[in-house]
Design brief:
single chain, 79% helix
């Protein structure tokens, strides 16, 4: 899975490079916004549904509960469709050159990714990690091959959108839906289909607005179309470790879930302090290396016109280091089904980031980078230190989802 995740990160980088060089800063803007929208819909609605299915398959195989979770996943996909299509219709003139075709593209992207995340949920929940890695690699390979074909044939932005819609469906080659067997587990813990997924979506929405909403935020704080492209390409590079880590979450979550359901769950929460300390160190190193290397790498991969300000590079690197820790801290709460606490932590981080956008007075690209770093840092500290449960008790039906306070 780790090798496949690295390959996927390189493939995404290659796809963005091909598209940006083929289209230029202004022509690439619709793809930058479409990718941002796709990323948000995937991580806010579809990935939580995948993780919910993964967790449920670890703690229960009761047919009625699995059916209920499938219904929840369908609701999440329908919400993604509604939001995605609605956003494109509302912003068609602003972001998509007035083309109605992008409505069809975002609809196709949601459908394709819904099949992908459902399949991967079955793979991770049944611990078919090799097949999960294959699905990552196949999707990444189809993305880069498709992007290369479009670039060589001189296709426009809409053809790159077609590749974005088609590549996730290739995960079906792993035959993921044969993974679940009714006698695979012996846990009797209630999987809590509706409540936990609702909290998880709220938490993920807040966290992903911090991580991936930057290009859209740049536009709304006064940045030009070129500034949107500059922020997107720079942070696509910076987010590489985070994007790869999303795939590794599928490997960590089943083990964290098993720890959460032991009679004594201190083994799970012992990870929190380690995650915070590791993240602070990673943030410092990432800030230094990003400040030194991001601009030349962006110039090499995308072209000189895409190079970000140095301040944005430093802040972005720090934010990614903090974000890696926050991502794994999130899995502690997902494993223990502490959805309300998880949502509280990420909403606090989002509010901190929004406060920066409203109160700071710097150039749009640097401003949004600062908001990103602050939001990730506050989210990490809330989850890693502030909101930990004070008592470590066995997880039962009565305490599977503990509200804040």
């Amino acid at each position: 899975m780790f090798a496949a995740s690295l390959f996927a990160a390189v493939a995404v980088l290659g796809f963005h490079s091909l598209a940006s060089r083929s289209l230029g800063p202004d022509g690439f803007s619709p793809i930058a916004v479409l990718w941002t929208l796709m990323f948000l819909l995937h991580t806010v609605l579809l990935l939580p549904a995948e993780q919910h299915l993964t967790r449920a398959l670890v703690v229960t195989t009761t047919p009625s509960q699995i059916r209920a979770i499938r219904k929840d996943m369908l609701v999440a996909a329908a919400a993604a469709m509604f939001i995605g299509v609605g956003f494109v219709i509302a912003t068609r003139e602003r972001f998509f050159d007035g083309s109605a075709a992008y409505v069809a593209y975002i609809a196709a992207i949601v459908i394709s990714r819904a099949f992908m995340t459902t399949g991967r949920g079955f793979l991770a929940g049944s611990r078919r990690f090799v097949a999960y890695g294959v699905s990552i690699g196949v999707e990444a390979g189809s993305l880069i091959i498709g992007g290369l074909a479009v670039a060589l044939l001189g296709g426009g932005a809409q053809w790159f959108a077609v590749i974005m819609a088609a590549s996730p469906a290739t995960t079906l080659v792993t035959r993921p839906f044969r993974a679940v067997r009714g006698d695979a587990h012996h846990h009797t813990v209630n999987a809590q289909p509706g409540t936990f997924l609702a909290w998880l979506i709220v938490a993920t929405a807040a966290s992903q607005l911090i991580i991936a909403g930057g290009p859209i935020a740049v536009s709304f704080v006064g940045g030009s179309a070129a500034a949107v492209s500059i922020f997107f390409t720079s942070f696509a590079l910076l987010r590489g470790p985070l994007t790869s880590a999303y795939n590794l979450v599928a490997r960590v979550l089943p083990d964290f879930t098993a720890l959460a359901h032991r009679p004594d769950d201190r083994g799970l929460w012992a990870w929190a302090n380690k995650i915070v300390l590791g993240s602070l160190g990673a943030a410092g190193l990432a800030a230094v290396f990003s400040g030194l290397l991001l601009r030349p790498i962006v110039q090499l991969v995308y072209g000189a016109e895409f190079a970000p300000p140095v301040g944005a590079a430093i802040l972005g690197g720090a934010g990614v280091g903090l974000g890696l820790g926050a991502l794994f801290a999130t899995q502690l709460y997902s494993a223990a089904a502490l959805g309300a606490r998880l949502a509280a932590g990420w909403l606090t981080g989002l509010l901190a980031g929004l406060a920066v956008l409203l109160l700071a007075d710097v150039a749009p690209v640097v401003l949004v980078a600062l908001a990103f770093s602050v939001g990730e840092g506050v989210g990490l500290l809330m989850l890693g230190l502030v909101l930990q449960p004070r008592r470590h008790v066995p997880q039962t039906r009565s305490n599977m989802d503990v509200p804040l306070g």
